[in-house]
Amino acid sequence: MSEPILEFDDVSIKYRTRGGGAVHAVNEASFTIGEHEYFGLVGESGCGKSTIADSVVGGLDENGEVTSGAIRFKGTEIQDYSEKQFNKHIRWKEIAVIPQSSMNSLDPVMKLSDQAIEMAKYHTDLSKREAVDRLRELFGVVGIPESRIHDYPHQFSGGMQQRTIIAFSLFLRPSLIIADEPTTALDVIMQDQILDYINALKDDWDVSMLMITHDISIVFENCDTMAVMHGGQMAESGSVIDVFDRPRHPYSILLQNAFPDIRYPDRELAVIDGYPPQLTERPDYCTFADRCPWATQECYEGAPGPETVDGNPAHRAWCIRADEMESLAEEHLTASTQATNILEETHE
Ligand SMILES: Nc1ncnc2c1ncn2[C@@H]1O[C@H](COP(=O)(O)OP(=O)(O)O)[C@@H](O)[C@H]1O
Ligand SMILES: [Mg+2]
Are both 144 and 86 inside the same structural domain? Predict the structure, then answer.
């Protein structure tokens, strides 16, 4: 594996709530993103994905706090950085964030070229002209006519604004881009286009990506490595090929079956009943157990630790039954296909 850019080492994050309570949004999460690696983090809404993204740039909500573990960026621990340290050393310069909605991240009353000049003034030695030239070049990268760099944000459509944000996120040549559901607010055609641009960046820039989404097929198509999260816990991590071909956590298996797969065009899409829990206490059990077709009593008796899959240390599943999952899943999926066939026959 390449040099690590970002390491999460046993990180727990909680939010204090009114009345002295707490939400344990992330519990003992571990993963590593290497140089030039596109890493996808996937899970349904409420799993803790944005909390992870926010913690990397010091952007946790006021009531949020990293309570244990280490977050290392290029080998330096940053979990205890102050807002000032994050702004000086990390934000934009080293790590840029493409937020879910671009609406609030551009200054509405400032020309885009002026925003680039401001950014360059604060963070670089570039002259005004160099700043404008760089923005022009980046507009080329994201497919917006260069002549539009002197426009105001409101003159752009939603999709163009989102691409403008991508251009700005690249402006200071960061080592890591965090894209938190970058296309969720866009229509399908625009989504594809944006993902194509993000993907193409890999060829032109030496950049790593933390791509966050609820759609596992987006990760399969655009990333090299990935992690699946459920209810504030890690479920599975590994290369995209490992998790695609040999998923070993029940949640990864069901999530994969919940999206269309060209390999099985006739397959029924699985529905995962229920929701990830809101964790008012630190979970000392598997948070997927209540939704899992294969849960046993033991799943409620401790938070699962990572199990190495097939002797491959880069592929891990946080499930005590990981080594049985291949056969269990096969039986389950065959059984549900049979049930569908029987149903279809009786309806003919
Ligand atoms: N400021 C906050 N205060 C209290 N709870 C929060 C706050 N922000 C997020 N949460 C809770 O933390 C959990 C994880 O949220 P989040 O990281 O936004 O998940 P995701 O991005 O996967 O949808 C959820 O249960 C959410 O309700
Ligand atoms: Mg989120």
Answer: no
Residue 48 Cα to ligand 1 midpoint, Å, equals: 6
Q: Which residues make beta-bridge pairs with 16? A: 22
Query: Which ligand has the shortest distance to the CA of 52?
Result: 1
Q: What is the CA radius of gyration of the chain?
A: 22
CB 20 within 8 A of CB 280: no
pLDDT of residue 13: 98
Cα of 43 to ligand 2 centre, how many Å? Answer: 9
- 277 and 293 in a common domain: yes
- Identify whether residues 222 and 289 lie together within a single domain: yes
Domain count, the chain: 2
DSSP result, 113-147: HHHHHHHHHHH----HHHHHHHHHHHHHHTT--GG
pLDDT the model gives residue 343:
55
- Name the residue among 50, 59, 70 with its Cα closest to residue 6: 70
Do 139 and 78 reside in the same domain of the chain? no
The ligand placed nearest to the CA atom of residue 44 is 1
Q: Report yes or no on 43 lying in a domain.
A: yes
Domain extent, residue 227, equals 1-94+176-188+208-347
The least confident of 86-95, 106-115, 133-142, 180-189 is: 180-189
51 and 143 belong to one structural domain: no
Q: Which of 11, 13, 47, 51 to mutate to test the pocket of ligand 1 (most atoms within 8 A of CB)?
A: 51
